[in-house]
Write a structure and sequence with these properties.
4-stranded antiparallel sheet; GMP Synthetase, Chain A, domain 3; about 30% helix
Length: about 375
């Protein structure tokens, strides 16, 4: 006889809690049905959230515990009654810890389905010895008691509540797992880096910092960094700021000496997905300009003389022949250049510098 094929279903025991898989076997279950299963805490009531035809059986490698039965109306009534009883016992546990000065905070309590075991969840800065509290509370309540230490985020998930956004805590309403959050995510979204302003009621960084982080990083990856120089159709510009929500870029144009704000999509349409930095533009254009200047042909004829400059003359006043004209150096007038040439021909040897005194008398 071949082995019976298992029928995995997803069961959740708490709202927004982790999904555990069990073998439905021959039980006909659908999404939303309540079932009774056996866990490490004993018998518990769970709600089916993933139907058998929605589970990929080849992805479940571990051995599945079977579903014992579908939850009856009596099971549901007893389950709700034990929830109310656990709230009363929670007050007794808090009072006991306060009287004995224990360095722990008891945040939640829950019974298993038959009421034979009571579990307290607590938080503490370090490991604590709660063995005496277990013995005292077991005698006081009359059932088996165990303590489980949880983290700050688990404490907020168990207590539930509302945050500054006005909505229920994500971890208590729909979020099944805690994401990994870092201060880099807040920096990427231009949020204040003060942990007190970006932390939730649990004292940890907001889980919602991860919701839009990928969108911010994707858009910033297509835009230049703040402070970098880019080449634009109106000249070189410096990136002053980037508004990711508005999807705009603020640029300081050096030639026009003004600030312009343009949509990021326009910047991407001009330069593609990656904006060209000014250093890259210079690196590409410099060899092209040098190559263009080197390959340019020389002028066929010399440049014509300036119309304002008179033609040079010889000592007798006759004009110089064609080709003997020279252009005056930049910054000097043609008349000064002409006087300098005449003076050099007539008395170049007798010229003295001012500090050498007057010239010797002529014989």
């Amino acid at each position: 006889m071949s082995e019976r094929q298992r029928v995995p279903v997803g069961v959740r025991f708490k709202e927004a809690g982790k999904v555990y898989y069990f073998d439905a076997g021959e039980h006909e279950v659908e999404t939303g049905n309540y079932v009774v299963v056996e866990t490490s805490h004993g018998l518990e009531v769970g709600r089916v959230v993933i139907a058998p035809d929605q589970v990929l059986a080849n992805e479940i490698k571990e051995t599945l515990k079977p579903i014992l039965r579908a939850a009856s109306p009596e099971d549901i009534v007893q389950w709700n009654a034990l929830k109310a009883r656990a709230r009363d016992d929670l007050r007794a546990a808090k009072s006991h810890v306060a009287d004995h000065g224990g360095d722990m905070q008891v945040v939640s309590a829950e019974y298993n389905l038959d009421g034979s075991q009571l579990t307290f969840y607590f938080t503490a800065p370090d490991r604590v010895d709660y063995r005496q509290a277990v013995r005292d509370l077991s005698q006081q309540i009359g059932v088996k008691v165990q303590f489980l230490q949880v983290g700050d985020r688990d404490r907020a998930k168990l207590l539930d509540g509302y945050d500054v956004c006005g909505q229920r805590l994500c971890c208590s309403s729909w979020q099944t797992a805690f994401p990994s959050v870092s201060i880099k995510m807040a920096k990427e979204q231009d949020l204040p880096l003060n942990p007190q302003k970006i932390s939730g009621v649990c004292g940890r960084l907001y889980c919602c910092l991860t919701f839009e982080f990928e969108g911010y990083r994707e858009l910033r990856g297509q835009l230049p960094k703040v402070g970098s120089m880019v080449s634009t159709p109106v000249g070189e510009a410096k990136v002053r700021s980037i508004n990711v929500l508005k999807k705009t870029v603020s640029l300081w144009v050096e030639e026009a000496r003004q600030v312009i704000e343009m949509p990021a999509v326009d910047l991407q349409m001009q330069y593609g997905l990656t904006v060209r930095p000014v250093e890259l533009v210079r690196e590409i254009e410099a060899p092209l300009r040098a190559q263009a200047e080197a390959s340019a042909p020389p002028p066929a004829f010399p440049p014509p003389p300036s119309p304002s400059a008179p033609a040079p003359e010889f000592e007798d006043g006759a004009p110089a022949p064609e080709g003997a004209q020279e252009r005056a150096p930049e910054g000097t007038s043609p008349d000064a250049d002409q006087r300098r040439r005449r003076r050099g021909r007539r008395g170049g040897r007798n010229r003295r510098r001012p500090d050498e005194g007057p010239p010797p008398p002529q014989s």
